[in-house]
């Protein structure tokens, strides 16, 4: 059985949630309160090529990653409840990758997603509407289109579906192995033509390379529907804004990963209270200069009766992107859902961006992002 969106929605490429705070439909900030439905109406889903997805998706990088996110298999029951809560509340886009999962747990994120879909008890309609966007790694040994198609078949087997919603190139090899890049592009075309994916996208492609692959795919009759890029109040540099402008002009949807800056925009951490693991080094460099931004986030959150993460995610939605914050607990999912059903004012958006521009150091861009 294939899991993808079957909803009928308007054909406008960028139909953005138009709820206002007065709508009364926003999720309470406190996780102890019951959820209020709906957070958005069916016609407020976002078009991504042939697919209709929720205004926000959830990322599953942490599902299987022991090094950065401290994953343990004992967390799986909590992850299942997290998934169920998300789907029950209208989230139908889940982003993953064939490289998610460390060591022996490589591919664990895809396996868990497949398991959670099969065991979902909330109704077949919701289950069939789920869109999985997975990314295929440009490993050095994937040198031919056929090897890339086989990678897609491997993901299908792990997720146990007949068709993937969006098949994405995880990164470009243009900076270090340009000959491999063309094989990957041809592999993307092949998996689309074989019906293994409903749509194709890219991740970590800079503006120049994005235009090149768009033109190449268009010439082959394959539409490029999405471009995934690090995008947040800490990641809105010239490249990000140029990518966004290109996507808007070509009808490509921007999927914003790390909308909370790996956690720096949650308000949970300070220079004296850092996360464990590799993130602590990055946080130590950036957090001391974030006081103006975090203060502004807090101020708006208090006035809106929201939380800091909800405001930061809502900013991404207001910029016309689909944020995919990571979740690994019911509490996180509840909080992230509170970013839906309302919109920051244009004044608040500008205020946040000005505060962000004052930060002396921004997020380090992905090493694989091309120009």
UniProtKB/TrEMBL annotation:
The UniProt entry, under PROSITE patterns, shows: ALDOKETO_REDUCTASE_2 (PS00062)
Q: Which UniProt keywords apply?
A: NADP, Oxidoreductase
Q: Which GO terms describe its molecular function?
A: oxidoreductase activity
| Residues of the NADP-dependent oxidoreductase domain | 55-352
GO-annotated cellular components: cytoplasm
CDD domains under this entry? Answer: AKR_AtPLR-like
**Stored SUPFAM superfamilies:** NAD(P)-linked oxidoreductase
Pfam families according to UniProt: Aldo_ket_red (PF00248)
Superkingdom, according to UniProt?
Eukaryota
Q: Does the keyword Nucleus apply?
A: no
Enumerate the PANTHER family for this protein.
AFLATOXIN B1 ALDEHYDE REDUCTASE, PYRIDOXAL REDUCTASE, CHLOROPLASTIC
What protein name does the entry list? NADP-dependent oxidoreductase domain-containing protein
Annotated source species: Cannabis sativa (Hemp)
């Amino acid at each position: 059985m294939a899991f993808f969106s079957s909803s009928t929605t308007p054909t406008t490429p960028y139909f953005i949630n138009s709820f206002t705070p007065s709508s009364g439909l926003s999720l309470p900030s406190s996780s102890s309160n019951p959820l209020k439905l709906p957070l958005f109406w069916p016609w407020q889903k976002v078009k991504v090529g042939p697919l209709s997805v929720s205004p926000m998706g959830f990322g599953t990088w942490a599902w299987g990653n022991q090094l950065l996110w401290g994953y343990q298999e004992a967390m799986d029951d909590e992850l299942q409840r997290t998934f169920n809560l998300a789907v029950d509340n209208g989230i139908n886009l889940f982003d993953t990758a064939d490289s998610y999962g460390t060591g022996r747990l490589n591919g664990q994120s895809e396996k868990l997603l497949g398991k959670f879909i099969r065991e979902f008890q909330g109704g077949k309609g919701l289950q069939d509407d789920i869109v999985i966007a997975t990314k295929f790694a440009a490993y050095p040994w994937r040198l031919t289109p056929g090897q890339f198609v086989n990678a897609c078949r491997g993901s299908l087997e792990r997720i146990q579906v007949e068709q993937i919603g969006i098949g994405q190139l995880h990164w470009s090899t243009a900076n270090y192995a340009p000959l491999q890049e063309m094989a990957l592009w041809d592999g993307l075309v092949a998996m689309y033509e074989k019906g293994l994916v409903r749509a194709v996208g890219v991740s970590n492609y800079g503006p120049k390379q994005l235009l090149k692959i768009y033109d190449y795919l268009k010439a082959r009759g394959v539409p490029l529907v999405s471009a995934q890029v690090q995008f947040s109040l800490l990641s809105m540099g010239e490249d990000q804004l140029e990518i966004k402008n290109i996507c808007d002009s070509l009808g490509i949807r921007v999927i914003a990963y790390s909308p909370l800056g790996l956690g720096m925009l949650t308000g949970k951490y300070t220079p004296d209270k850092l996360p464990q693991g590799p993130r602590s080094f990055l946080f130590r460099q950036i957090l001391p200069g974030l006081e103006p931004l975090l203060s502004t986030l807090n101020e708006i959150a208090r006035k809106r009766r929201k939380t800091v993460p909800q405001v930061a995610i809502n900013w991404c939605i207001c910029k016309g992107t689909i944020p995919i914050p990571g979740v690994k607990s019911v509490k996180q999912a509840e909080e992230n859902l509170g970013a839906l059903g309302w919109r920051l004012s244009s004044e608040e958006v500008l205020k946040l961006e000005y505060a962000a521009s004052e930060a002396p150091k921004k997020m380090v861009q992905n090493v694989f992002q091309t120009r």
